[in-house]
Amino acid sequence: MKSIIMRPLFRSILALVALPGIASAQETGPAADSWQATLAPTEEAFTNTGRHACFILEPGHQLVLAGREDGKPAELTITVLEESREIDGVSTRVVEERETVGGKLVEVSRNFFALGAATGNLYYFGEELDMYQDGKVSSHEGAWQAGLDGAKHGILLPGRLRLGDRYYQEQAPGVAMDRAENVSTNVTFKCPAGTFANCLKTRETTPLESGTEYKLYAPGIGLVQDGGLKLLRQGSKP
């Protein structure tokens, strides 16, 4: 998933006390060379709709981020669809992403999520991916699905957001192994959609390639910054 996962989810500042699952802390130092997860998926019941502290998994909810990529105007639209999909025996919610660069469609992905009923973890079960070039689908590279070819679901965001926690967001060997670390939980961020306090900052890497990416999630809102893209507006799908 290029935006919510590895890529270079509103109206007011939300108080931290309203979200007890988030603890305030300063950013940690550089990640160690030997990366190890501190969290892993647990056996629990799932639901395909609801709210994580930093992610709204409710049909019709939409985020629009805008900015520049490679010197060109870019826009990313994330929409929680009415559609559900059974993945590896779990009913998941489909979240669509559409990205344009320079006014041209470059990617459409359909991502599969579910919330853990006990932990509040937001689990990631895979994605279907269409990459576009000159208006035509050119690749499905990076697509994966839990339960197939050894892939397992990962944790997109833990239910309890603690500084320093590390977790695999994707667990598809050789295809998608994105992982994240919580490096700050008290960032204040200003963007076209407003000013947001106590944002979660994650650092994302993958053992499959070099590079590091950062994202910001606002409590009660979702993704507010993804590389050069910043939240432009959010709410119900028009």
Structural commentary:
The protein is mostly beta strands. The chain has one domain (16-236): YmcC-like fold (Beta Barrel), CATH 2.40.360. The chain is built from no helices and 18 strands. It has a 16-stranded antiparallel beta sheet that branches. The chain has a two-stranded antiparallel ribbon with strand order 2-3. The protein is globular and about 45 Å long.
What is the count of helical runs? 0
The geometry reads as globular
Low-confidence stretches: 7-24
Q: β content, as a range?
A: over 45%
Helix content range: under 10%
CATH architecture: Beta Barrel
What is the name of the CATH class?
Mainly Beta
Summing up helix and strand content along with how strands pair, one would put the structural category as mainly beta
The description of the largest β-sheet is: 16 strands, antiparallel
What is the CA-based Rg, rounded? 17 Å
How is the CATH topology named?
YmcC-like fold
- How many extended strands? 18
Distance between termini? 23 Å
Integer tally of domains: 1
Quote the average pLDDT: 89
